[in-house]
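Q: Structure for this?
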Amino acid sequence: MHVLEMNHVEKSFNEQNVLRDISLSVKEGEILSVIGPSGSGKSTLLRCATMLEQMDKGELFYLGEKAAWNGNDGTTVYAKKEKLKEIQKNYGLVFQNFNLFPHMTVLNNIIDAPIHVQKRSREDAVKEAKELLQKMGLADKADAYPCQLSGGQCQRVAIARALALNPKILFFDEPTSALDPELTGEVLKVIKSLADLHIAMVIVTHEMAFARDISDRVIFMAEGVIVEEGTPDEVFASNNVRTQNFLGRYGDIL
Amino acid sequence: MAFTKILTQLAGGMWVSIQIFLVTLIFSLPLGLLVSFGRMSKNRVIEAIVKFYISVMRGTPLMLQLMVVYFGPYYLFGVKVGNGYRLWAAFIGFVINYAAYFAEIYRSGIQSMPAGQYEAAKLLGYSKNQTFFRIIFPQVVKRILPSVTNEVITLVKDTSLAFTISVLEMFAVAKALASSQTSLIPFVAAGLFYYVFNLVVAMLMEYIEKRMNYYQ
Ligand SMILES: Nc1ncnc2c1ncn2[C@@H]1O[C@H](COP(=O)(O)OP(=O)(O)OP(=O)(O)O)[C@@H](O)[C@H]1O
Ligand SMILES: [Mg+2]
């Protein structure tokens, strides 16, 4: 079964068609990268998938559960609130600019939702959070506040925060593009280390070498459509002119 | 007459001023939050009503509002109010006036919160209430603290307006003493009282602001 399935998704902002008939699916544990030029609709795609943005048309499923479908008038209808809340538990999102809670310590950022949303015991939540921090290389930062951390550390906390809710699929929207180049590596390394957790990941990124290394599948988007989709080898060796043009800009890295 | 004697005579008035101050804060701070919700309501009718209420509270003198609250029951509804109502009228007048000011402060603070905080909370599964009280409000408090401090300091001085409805607060007592003794000293003492009161308030607020400085 697919963790995520999106069918014929359309989305426009003031007459501008940002997503045009986008369909994609992600299997359990699969890692999918989404690449494409600025303004091609990658963030909008993630925001529609995570229901931060409402689709105009199209269907959205998580683990076969219907989150949204086309109603009689052909526009998207969303499931009831309670149902959406259930479905929402399946996914997490890591933002470009982290969006950590600045008034909470690193530890509290991670355990707050498990305790107050999932109603897990504090003891249990703290134990898991400490393990996650260890994994992120931040064991000594539990009591720090986000403002005391570097961008790369913040992003790793954000990843730990998302993981603490045990999602089946995790979305990343350019997780390293707000970071200084020297901090990019540590975050990418952490994301790579998640591969063996068997969580599906959808990663929007401009880090081509990273996308090629980590992905099971790559999607190249331009102007709101999926131009090409395939294994990294297929997409990065594509004969498609648009794909080649785009990848050409990263020529020396690849 | 000795300065200390004047102070003793003023003590009753001081206590009334402090009462007005405390009651106003205790009730107008939460009420203001409620009013700010109304002001930001998606319901147009509620929004319009609350907007009008705020504009009246901010657009007319507090002195006049106190008189309306005090004399209103009789002139509008023919209800006879006892002498004891004076202080209550002052409480009510101050609370509804300050709630309006605090509401606007809350609103500016809430609206200055970046959308990313709401989005992160939504993705983590927080309910609307949890998002507000766990994520948004604690940050808003820090953001609005300087404006609240200004308002609280104004309130200390505003308490003297209660004398317009003959509440025997500090200022009214000082005025009576000054005329009965043809002396300015009661006014000096009153001024000193407001000054020290505000000094204490300012120190307290500074302390709270420092406490909030654990994050940027
Ligand atoms: N809330 C919005 N209102 C209006 N237009 C929007 C909104 N969000 C996105 N857009 C527009 O939709 C288009 C696609 O934006 P999107 O952010 O999805 O692109 P992107 O592929 O993520 O680009 P980047 O690589 O720069 O992040 C852009 O032209 C953008 O201006
Ligand atoms: Mg984007």
